[in-house]
Prior knowledge:
Blueprint: H1 4-7, E1 9-16, E2 20-27, E3 32-39, H2 49-64, E4 74-79, E5 84-87, H3 107-116, H4 129-137, E6 144-147, H5 148-156, E7 163-165, H6 166-169, H7 183-188, E8 197-199, E9 204-207, H8 210-214, E10 222-228, H9 229-236, E11 245-249, E12 253-259, E13 271-275, E14 278-285, H10 289-296, H11 298-307
Parallel strand pairs: 1-4, 4-10, 7-8
Antiparallel strand pairs: 1-2, 2-3, 5-6, 9-10, 11-12, 12-14, 13-14
Amino acid sequence: MIDTEDRMPIAVGIDIGTSGTRAVALNSQGDVTATAACAFATADENRNPLAWWAGARTCLEQLGGLCDLRAVEGIAVDGTSGTLLAVDRQYRPIGHASLYNDTCGDTSILQAVEDLAPAESPSRGAISPAARAIMLARTQGTYKILHQADWVAFQLAHRSAAVSDENNALKTGYDLQNECWPEWLEKAGLDLELLPEVLRAGVAHAFVGARAVGLGFSDQCRVHAGTTDGCASFLATGAGEVGDGVTALGSTLVLKLASDCAISAPQYGIYSHRIGDIWLVGGASNTGGGVIRALFGDERLAALSRQLDPSRPTGLDYYPLLKPGSAFP
Length: 329
C-alpha cells in the first residue's frame, strides 16, 4: 500500500496561457496528483490582469478540492513570454496588458532598441518587449513594469515588491551574463528603477501571503521564481539532458533544445534561456494555434478537426501570420 504521505502534493505550478489558466499539483516523486483549468470567458480576457488572477484563484480552489494544499511546500507561476503590464504603487494594473505578440507602434523606440541593444540580444523586432516596456513606462502613474508571471506570483507572495525571473526578463533586455538590467535600456528611454529585481528561475524568494493562506496553503509554503510558458513546456515533458529537444504547439509554436552553452542568432530568431545548469536554445513562431483559431473560429475549427486524417497529407504548404512583425524564425 502506498503511504498517504507520499501521495500528498509538495509542489504546485500555475500556467497563465493565451486561452486560460491551468494548475497542477505534483507529489515528491514528480507524479501528477491533481490538475485544474479555467478558460478565459472571452478572448479579450487574456489582456486583463484581473482575469489572470481570477483564473489562478479558481484553479487553486479546484486543486484544494482534490488534494491537501497544506502539504504544498512550493509554488511557481509561468506566463506568456513578453507579456507586460504597468502597475501603480499599490501594484494595481494600469489598463490592459501588452501581449507577447503585440507590436510597438513607435518607430523611434524600435530604432533606439535596434541601435543600442547588443547584437546577440533577442530584444529587437516589431514585437520587442523592451520597446513595449518603454511605451508602457510612459503611462501616467506607472510605478513598475512587470511581466505576467511576476504579477500573478506577487498576488500569492508575502512581500512588498514583485520580482521577476531571468527567463521572462530576457526579451525585455535583461543581461544574462552579468545578471543585471543593462545600461543600454536606460539610454533607450527606460528608467531601470521601473523594472523588478530578477532572480534565476526556480529560486525561492518569499513565503506565501494572506491570499494563498486563505486558499488553504500553509504559511510555510514558499513562492519560487517562475519562467516562461515555453520553458515550462520543456520542463513538463521530463526533458533535461543536453541534446533533449521539445516542440510545443499552442497558440504559438515553440522549439527548445537543451545545450551546454548559450547560442544566439537573432537574425534567425534563435536565443537561449538558462534553466539551472543548462541552456534552452530555440525560438518561437507566431504561426500556431492562435492563428488557426483567429482564421476559423472555435466552432468551425472543431468541425474541421473532425474531418482531418493525420495519415493523409493536406497538400497545404503555407505558414499564415496575422499581422506584420509577427515572429517567424
